[in-house]
Amino acid sequence: MGGVLDGVRVLDFGRYIAGPYCATLLAEFGAEVIRVEKRDGSEDRFVAPVGEGGEGALFLQVNRNKKCITLDPMKPEGQEVMRRLVATSDVVVANLPPQTLRAMKLDYESLKAIKPDIILTTATAFGNPGPWSDRVGFDGVGQVMSGAVYMTGKGDPPYRAAVNWVDFGTALHCAFGTLAALIERGKSGRGQIVEGALLATALSFTNATLIEQAVISANRVPSGNLGQTAAPADIYRTRDGWVLCQVTGHPLFIRWARLMGEEDQWLNDPRFADDIKRGDNGPVISERMARWCAERTTQEAVDTLGKSMIPAGPVLSPQQALEHPHIRATGFMQDVDYPGLPNPAPTMRAAVRLSETPGEIVTRPPTLGEHTDRVLADIGYDADAIAALRSNGII
């Protein structure tokens, strides 16, 4: 593998999404990433199993391009292995609670004593400082505490998103922070801590809503798919499915009114003079859009809206997303084989393209402990020493 991060070695002690996907993004752009797992496999390896060995869909997504070793870092011999690994690495990624980092001697002070310019990239649930800093949490905790879940659905019950946007957003923030820390180290020679938090990510994504509340006390309540600050913005039933249409800004509203063939009705009515007024009167506008969509198939609706340069898209099932001609044509996903899978895994490449130094998926996700012997040999263990570590339950 080559790439802009060629020569950077990353130790990935991450679990689930925020840590592992951060490390994956670094790997996709050339870093050597070594995933360190429990001897019988870490729990995130087996979420939503799809293969004969129990490996899950999430694991396959966020662990391509990595090597994998198994290690018990709580035993003295395991600590020595870890010390040697840290001494040869540039970045340690570990989205683990602070008390767990200290117990594993992965806290920054312990790492810095081994390699003074090390970069430690961490992600916690709630961030520091604060009374909840030592608590643990998953993606959903960030969703519910940010205002996002309160505003989703129609309020009774509130709905969290089915996708882990808080986890993936935290991974993106951590990858960005790690790159910034590497650039700084290149200038000053100093390492540092890069700290993400699920709650911080969730609050950053909902920040505009929080600003509006703090400044003008909008006191918004959930309204399903109906937009509140512009219109038409909703999901509409067609003759054979559903389509989303979002019109924000007066130029788009003019295009929409022309498409409806009713410019005078919509453009001269003071109720629809700007986005916020259109949002306040959204049900009136959405009723007209709903009638327009109901007369057409989903394909007819999205094609007509697309030609009019109005943002729209069909509501797709997972299978339909895999089969959609545009998604297939973009090459966003790459089929990746893995031992024991009945079919290749369509794996998303990094969702950003660099024209001169693009990232790439070079190797499939590793099997459990696939590279243990090779990595240990690289840091000075001979065959007998490796055999002894295995016999003693260290690897």
Automatic annotation (TrEMBL):
The molecule here is called: Formyl-CoA transferase
Q: Which organism is it from?
A: Bradyrhizobium jicamae
Against Gene3D superfamilies, the record matches this protein to: Crotonobetainyl-coa:carnitine coa-transferase, domain 1 (3.40.50.10540), formyl-coa transferase, domain 3 (3.30.1540.10)
Q: Which Pfam families match?
A: CoA_transf_3
Q: Name one GO molecular function term.
A: CoA-transferase activity
Q: Which UniProt keywords apply?
A: Transferase
Top-level taxon in the UniProt lineage: Bacteria
Record-linked PANTHER family: SUCCINATE--HYDROXYMETHYLGLUTARATE COA-TRANSFERASE
Question: Which InterPro entries would you find in this protein's record?
Answer: CoA-transferase_III_domain, CoA-Trfase_fam_III, CoA-Trfase_III_dom3_sf, CoA-Trfase_III_dom_1_sf
